[in-house]
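> forwarded from #structure-qc
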């Protein structure tokens, strides 16, 4: 049996591979915008999105969207109302309004959203793109380990097996 080694810091292989190949990582930018906008104008929208996306910001490709989603989740956890004003206020309170794109960007997210009718579908598209980025990252990590002579083959195989199992069960 191979000995356990210290865990290495996570590498964002998706970004590295995208830069080297000139490809943009899988994402659904416009659907992310719709999800956030809907969550800020429709209370039911927040619950639908949380049900599908879970309580993590990792599913969002755009870092601004992850910051805004985190503010929405924080408000929800405190049982505060989630709307345009409260989200902006929460981002100001945590000094992350600029990182979230600013108040004009957040206001713009709500423009054109009329209902949460298709929100489940939008969430599944965003989740699918997240899974693709996660698979790219997991596969690249396994490939990098294969080139490392000090890596145990059976540990690499177990990592690959675990990655394929966990990818779809850990948003």
């Amino acid at each position: 049996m191979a000995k356990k080694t210290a865990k290495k810091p996570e590498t964002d292989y998706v970004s590295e591979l995208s830069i080297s190949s000139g490809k943009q990582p899988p994402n659904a930018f416009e659907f992310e915008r719709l999800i956030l906008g809907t969550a800020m104008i429709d209370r039911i929208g927040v619950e639908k999105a949380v049900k599908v996306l879970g309580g993590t910001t990792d599913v969002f490709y755009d870092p601004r969207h992850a910051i805004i989603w985190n503010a929405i989740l924080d408000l929800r956890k405190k049982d505060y109302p989630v709307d345009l004003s409260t989200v902006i206020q929460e981002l100001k309170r945590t000094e992350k309004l600029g990182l979230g794109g600013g108040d004009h960007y957040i206001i713009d997210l709500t423009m054109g959203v009329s209902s949460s009718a298709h929100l489940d579908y939008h969430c599944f598209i965003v989740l699918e793109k997240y899974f693709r980025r996660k698979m790219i990252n997991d596969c690249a990590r396994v490939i990098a380990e294969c080139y490392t002579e000090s890596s145990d083959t059976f540990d690499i195989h177990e990592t690959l097996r675990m990655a394929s199992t966990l990818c779809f069960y850990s948003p």
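QC bot note: The mean pLDDT is 87. The CA atoms of residues 143 and 156 lie 9 Å apart.
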